[in-house]
């Protein structure tokens, strides 16, 4: 194995991020939608600016075809209102012609003075039924064209999906001149893992048991080393933290009190990625859970009954949540994207009970290794200048 040193965007330890529910996924009770939590500019910008005020380092702005707001338009509007937080903007490869996408990302990166990161998504377009291998190949081509647009005076690309010869001497290059924004990526199929190892910077995982995480991380480290690259690791997970464990468990039950299996299945399957390998892994994890929905201590899978994608939450009191996060950090996970219901209320609770303690964890405590002494990769240290 190659030697890979760990560094961090947040020198105090990990990158702690929150979630902006642009896809209309915010509510007090899952599957019982309240119009007061509708995805709109007022609600979502309020959540994002609250996360900035409370000291979160990044925030995921997701993308969906069915409901919600356009990610890039929202990010561009809210960017000048932010102070310190980075924006993790989700892009769906194939939705926008790559040279135009390169220009849009570069423009947003300047508005944010380099506080932009990008979440690469490879799902089908509406009406598409493309297999995973060509979908990820399309994403690969998009990324390669983006990198040419950001670093070269001429785009010279010929692939399966795009054939572009284009002078590139005048377009705006990103604020982050050393390669553009960091690329975050989540995907579980072999073509997706290969794509991340070759081109992306942070591999985002949905919640699973710790041994499953370690398997994924070991595979990714090996794949990235074959390209002489380094890939960091992140976790996208919900959280329910209360002053006591019993209060947190009660909150999880309250969240689900209107959920029935038929409605939950309908919600999961309407998503573009509802039948993906990653979603199937979340389903398998639920099947392994105990009668109360816990698959590990304080890792509760109930949320996955009523939504696609990330389907589990950390549930417990502040010390229990902190211990769980420290365990992930000890395993080598350095980027965390949390969310909760309703998002602005759980954001406040997490910032009150957990975030100050996380910010006091020294970088040395976060620099542990996964089994076989395989060193992990770095989380890029801020805007790339």
Gross morphology: globular
State the order of secondary-structure elements, H for helix, E for strand: EHEHEHEHEEEHEHEHHHEEEHEHHH
CATH topology: TIM Barrel
Number of distinct helices: 13
Secondary-structure-derived class: alpha/beta
Number of strands: 13
List the defining traits of the structure above.
disordered N terminus, alpha/beta, TIM Barrel, two-stranded antiparallel ribbon
Account of the protein in words:
This protein has helices spanning 41-54, 71-78, 98-111, 132-151, 190-199, 210-226, 245-255, 261-269, 277-287, 318-331, 343-353, 355-359, 363-366; strands at residues 15-19, 58-61, 86-92, 116-121, 154-158, 163-167, 183-185, 202-205, 232-241, 294-296, 299-300, 313-316, 335-339. It is of the alpha/beta class and 385 residues long. It has an 8-stranded parallel beta barrel with strand order 1-2-3-4-7-8-9-13, surrounded by 6 helices. It is globular. Residues 1-12 and 362-378 have low confidence and may be disordered.
Quick overview:
With 385 residues, this protein is an alpha/beta fold.
What is the strand and helix layout of this fold?
Blueprint: E1 15-19, H1 41-54, E2 58-61, H2 71-78, E3 86-92, H3 98-111, E4 116-121, H4 132-151, E5 154-158, E6 163-167, E7 183-185, H5 190-199, E8 202-205, H6 210-226, E9 232-241, H7 245-255, H8 261-269, H9 277-287, E10 294-296, E11 299-300, E12 313-316, H10 318-331, E13 335-339, H11 343-353, H12 355-359, H13 363-366
Parallel strand pairs: 1-2, 1-13, 2-3, 3-4, 4-7, 7-8, 8-9, 9-12, 9-13
Antiparallel strand pairs: 5-6, 10-11, 11-12
Helix pairs in contact: 1-11, 3-4, 4-5, 5-6
